[in-house]
Every structure is written in structure tokens, then in C-alpha cells.
Specification:
This is Antitoxin. It comes from Psychrobacter pacificensis. With 83 residues, this protein is of the alpha+beta class. Helices cover 46% and strands 18% of the residues. It has one domain: YefM-like fold, CATH 3.40.1620. Strand 2 and strand 3 form a beta hairpin. The relative contact order is 0.13. The mean pLDDT is 93.
Length: 83
């Protein structure tokens, strides 16, 4: 059994036949694309994709900040006048 992370599903055949209709019917929600009743891809709106990319960028930046804070070096002190 495999979880599906979407409220809507469509087959690959439906996607091939009329991708524009699927996008319109989705109303901005993600669609799980199924092949033989197993999810093989997700169709997401541009807004959703952009939010996902921003979240991944934020996560990567957070990991960089944590690594630098825990690297054993003394923090560099900066004042507003220095900027």
C-alpha cells in the first residue's frame, strides 16, 4: 500500500488526453497521477510549486545557519554603524 498525498487523482491516460482540463478542474489543488493505480507523479499549480521551492530554500538556509552557529568559532559581532 502506498500513501497518496493529494485529494484528487487522475490516470496517465486522462493526463495525456486533456492536461488543460485536469489543471482547470483541480482548482489549484495538487493531483496525484496514477499508473496502474499507483502514484507516479504529482501535478501541482505554479503557486504551490513556488511555495514548495521557497520552503526548501528556507530549510537549506536554516541548516547552513545551524551548522555555522555550531562550528565552534566565536560569532562575529556587527553593529548597525558597521553596516
Amino acid at each position: 500500500m502506498q500513501p497518496i498525498f493529494a485529494t484528487q487523482t487522475a490516470s496517465i491516460s486522462e493526463l495525456k488526453n486533456n492536461p488543460s482540463a485536469l489543471i482547470k478542474q483541480s482548482d489549484g489543488e495538487s493531483i496525484a497521477i496514477l499508473n496502474h493505480n499507483k502514484p507516479v507523479a504529482y501535478l501541482v499549480s505554479t503557486d504551490m510549486y513556488e511555495r514548495m521551492m521557497e520552503a526548501m530554500d528556507d530549510m537549506a538556509l536554516s541548516q547552513t545557519v545551524n551548522a555555522r552557529m555550531n562550528d565552534g568559532q566565536a560569532p562575529i559581532k556587527v553593529t548597525l554603524d558597521d553596516l
